[in-house]
Design a protein that fits this description.
The structure is a single chain. By secondary structure, the protein is α/β, with parallel strands linked by helices. It folds into two domains: 140 residues, 3-Layer(aba) Sandwich (Rossmann fold); 155 residues, Rossmann fold, CATH 3.40.50.2300. Helices cover 45% and strands 16% of the residues. The strands form three sheets. It has a seven-stranded mixed beta sheet with strand order 2-1-3-4-5-12-11, sandwiched between helices. It has a four-stranded parallel beta sheet with strand order 7-6-8-9, with helices on both faces. Strands 10-13 form a two-stranded antiparallel sheet. Strand 11 and strand 12 form a beta hairpin. Helix 5 packs parallel to helix 6 and helix 8 packs parallel to helix 9. The protein is elongated.
Length: 354
């Protein structure tokens, strides 16, 4: 009898050890794994904080990791989340095509996968996508240029150049498409002229969203096409690219004498970009409010975990399936309303004015 009891106890201990080593929890608690690309950009550090707070307020436990913009590291983090037994993962992909295998392993373990802001591609292992309206983002930037130059009423012509996002980011083409929805009629009409002739997405894309590459390209455009002309507008997909475009323009004399900075767009409301806006060097940045994201993504996660299908406002094809999605809208930040970023807790007044 003692042997039987000892054997039973040993089996119980083994089972406990196996449960502790990984696999999904069976104690009724739900844990959300949150995987962000980097802490270096304010947008991702703030989103990470807001997501943790939002999920925990809704009664979930959370695990969060930042990948330092390393796709292979993020894939390992996904596998670590599998081992920890999370119930769902919210993933902002460093590279949406590079984490496919890791996501498929998670799906095999019954873990829900929610892509956030960047679509995970070439796999059916994605349950849902929550993002800002990608086309509207580009339209916001394009409309700002149209309004700033008063293209509806002015004859022009005005000179413009385009700096698009990296081709390995599936969002970048949609930003470009949205901007062209607004600006292409003015290009066709001749009110907007791209002196370089570089108008298509693939020739304006900056690999890796690299500010140094953006600077080099801007310098080449200025020396090659604007020796005796001025640029009136630069459609820049994101703030990180303005950090190359603006210095190149400064070196060419813009912002001094009788040569004002062109209209320059951006995205992400990075602090350095906000300071460029206050200094009159950048015209606007598109802001994504993490509070609005949380209002959508937490109920979506709850619905999926409860086995119900959350309402979708549309779908995005990731190369294998049409992923159901909900979106929220970007918000234009200019010199006139930068204090809005303080009001929503994105920056402090000291951050912006210090």
């Amino acid at each position: 009898m003692k042997k039987i009891i000892a054997l039973a106890l040993a089996l119980l201990m083994l089972a406990a050890m196996l449960c502790a080593c990984g696999g999904k929890k069976d104690d009724g608690e739900k844990t959300i794994g949150i995987l962000m690309p980097t802490k270096e950009q304010t947008i991702w550090s703030i989103q990470g904080e807001r997501l943790v707070a939002g999920y925990e307020a809704a009664g979930y436990k959370t695990e969060i990791e930042y990948a330092e913009d390393d796709a292979s590291k993020q894939a390992m983090q996904i596998e670590n989340m599998i081992t920890k037994g999370v119930d769902a993962m919210v993933i902002v992909a460093v590279d949406g095509a590079a984490i496919t295998d890791a996501c498929e392993k998670a799906k095999e373990e019954g873990i829900l996968i929610i892509a956030e802001d960047r679509l995970i591609t070439n796999t059916s292992a994605v349950d849902y996508y929550v993002t800002f309206d990608l086309v509207k983002m580009g339209e916001l930037q394009g409309q700002y240029i149209a309004d700033a130059l008063d293209l509806a009423n002015q004859a022009g012509p005005f000179n413009m150049e385009i700096f698009s996002g990296s081709q390995d980011d599936p969002n970048a083409q949609l930003f470009y498409n949205g901007a062209m929805n607004i600006l292409k009629p003015y290009i066709d009409e001749g009110k907007l002229v791209i002196q370089s002739g570089q108008a298509e997405y693939d020739v304006t894309a900056i690999k890796g969203w690299d500010s140094a590459e953006a600077r080099s390209r801007m310098e080449n455009l200025l020396s090659g096409f604007y020796a005796d002309k001025k640029i009136d507008a630069v459609l820049v997909a994101a703030d990180c690219l303005t950090f190359g475009v603006v210095p190149a323009l400064e070196d060419a004399g813009y912002g001094s004498g009788d040569l004002p900075f062109p209209v320059i767009t951006g995205q992400d409301a990075e602090l350095a970009a906000v300071k460029q806006i206050k200094a009159g060097k950048q015209s606007m940045t598109a802001f994504l409010d993490a509070n609005e994201l949380v209002k959508i993504i937490v109920p979506v996660t709850t619905s999926l975990l409860e086995g119900t299908v959350p309402e979708a406002t549309g779908t995005y094809n990731n190369g294998v399936i049409d992923v159901p999605a909900q979106t929220y809208s970007p918000y234009a930040i200019t010199a006139e309303n930068v204090d809005y970023l303080v009001e929503v807790g994105f920056f402090t007044e000291e951050d912006i004015n210090g």
